[in-house]
């Protein structure tokens, strides 16, 4: 995640590629560590590994490909090529830099069967996957504009990378998290 002054310098002259809310969310999840150990969008080798073995190429357990899709026409219109560094914009604002290491295609029907065990479009994951465009861009991302967190929640927005840093500073080796589907109550303390 770049500091504002550094971000301004880094994005000068980069090709801009607009993204929607779903892709913006994926960028934020990668940048803040929710998708650790990913540093960017998957390349073909990682997507293959996930589809075939539910693991990344480094052996990390991973069940669903995290991919950036673009159609051939969009790729041509924006002039995106392997080796390019592009600026991803969300709602006309700079969000992240993507270093395009690979542009690749995939058999979507096979991806659905491998990941979800079905090709039935009634399955929400299959439905979403079938709407992917025909090419994918793989490569690391760098966040250049932090998302705005609405008050009063900003003080409680502590991403995984920051939490891991705090755990290490405190010398904690084991950490337990508890998530409830309803409002927490004192009974949860005893779980």
CATH architectural label of the largest domain:
Roll
By DSSP, the count of extended strands is: 7
Rough outline: globular
CATH superfamily of the largest domain: Sulfate adenylyltransferase
Structural class: alpha+beta
Largest sheet features: 7 strands, mixed
**Helix content class:** 25-40%
Gyration radius, in Å = 19 Å
Low-confidence stretches: none
Order of helices and strands: HEHEHEHEEEHHEH
Mean pLDDT: 93
Strand content: 15-25%
Please report the number of helical segments: 7
Give the N-terminus to C-terminus distance in angstroms. 36 Å
Report what the structure shows.
By secondary structure, the protein is of the alpha+beta class. The chain has two domains: 4-143, Sulfate adenylyltransferase, CATH 3.10.400.10; 154-190, no CATH class. The chain is built from seven helices and seven strands. Strands 1, 2, 3, 4, 5, 6 and 7 form a seven-stranded mixed beta sheet that branches. Helix 5 (108-116) runs antiparallel to helix 6 (124-130). It is globular and about 55 Å long. The two termini are 36 Å apart. The mean pLDDT is 93.
Keywords:
191 residues, alpha+beta, Sulfate adenylyltransferase, 2 domains, 7-stranded mixed beta sheet, 7 helices, 7 strands, 33% helix
Gist of the model:
This protein is 33% helix and 18% strand. The chain has 191 residues and is an alpha+beta fold.
Task: Please render the helix and strand layout as text.
Elements: H1 4-11, E1 15-19, H2 21-31, E2 40-41, H3 44-53, E3 68-70, H4 72-78, E4 85-90, E5 93-99, E6 102-104, H5 108-116, H6 124-130, E7 135-143, H7 160-170
Parallel strand pairs: 1-4
Antiparallel strand pairs: 2-7, 3-7, 4-5, 5-7, 6-7
Helix pairs in contact: 5-6
């Amino acid at each position: 995640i770049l500091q504002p002054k550094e971000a301004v310098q880094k994005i000068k002259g980069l090709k801009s590629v607009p993204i929607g809310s779903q892709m913006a969310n994926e960028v934020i999840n990668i940048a803040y560590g929710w998708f650790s150990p990913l540093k960017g969008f998957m390349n073909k080798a990682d997507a293959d590994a996930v589809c075939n073995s539910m693991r990344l190429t480094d052996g990390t357990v991973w069940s669903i490909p995290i991919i950036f899709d673009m159609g051939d026409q969009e790729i041509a219109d924006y002039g995106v090529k392997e080796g390019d560094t592009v600026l991803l914009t969300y709602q006309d604002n700079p969000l992240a830099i993507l270093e395009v290491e690979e542009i690749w295609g995939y058999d979507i029907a096979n991806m659905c069967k491998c990941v979800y065990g079905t090709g039935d479009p009634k399955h929400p994951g299959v439905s979403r996957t079938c709407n992917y465009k025909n090419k994918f861009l793989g490569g690391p991302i760098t966040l250049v504009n932090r998302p705005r967190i609405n008050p009063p929640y900003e003080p409680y927005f502590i991403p995984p990378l920051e939490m891991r840093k705090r755990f290490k500073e405190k010398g904690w080796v084991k950490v337990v998290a508890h998530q409830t589907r309803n409002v927490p109550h004192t009974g949860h303390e005893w779980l």
